[in-house]
Amino acid sequence: MDIMAHSLWSLVLLPGPPSIAKVAFGIAPDVTVFATSLTVQAFKGKMQPGFKTRQEMMEWYNLKENRWVLNLYKWTHSLIIWGLVIIPLFAYYYFYLNQIPWFLLAAPLHILMDIPTHNNNSFPVQFLTPFSTFKVNGLHWSKPLVFIGNYVLIILAIFFRLFVLRK
Ligand SMILES: [Zn+2]
Known about the structure:
Blueprint: H1 3-13, H2 20-43, H3 54-61, H4 67-76, H5 79-96, H6 106-114, H7 144-164
Helix pairs in contact: 1-2, 1-7, 2-4, 2-6
Bound molecules: zinc ion (ZN).
């Protein structure tokens, strides 16, 4: 799913006022990978090529020198890894600061949304890394119907939150 949709879903689904932290955790699984990849490319002095098709993009990521990006993506899209990061932080906020840190849940929410909206040809989500390579061959988020349907749901959710729940 695209970064904009992830940001909006984090803001609309998690309780409490909008915050940068919700957006940051909501896009972290992708940003950590692609920012690292762009930085590495910049250091190598090469620009990442522009891709005309998703297949062309995946062929580039499958090159030996770029395959680490796909690997890193598996780790940042693992519910197990995020569990290890989030549970101690959650406990700290909850027990010491008496707050519920909803923003932390934006990262697993991102992964749950990516699982059915990625397919085997384009960054499948191995959400049980490192214990299992299980993945779902879903409906890719860039398919017009999925893409439009997703934003329609986001708009409905925003309206529901603002006008029905009134918060
Ligand atoms: Zn993602």
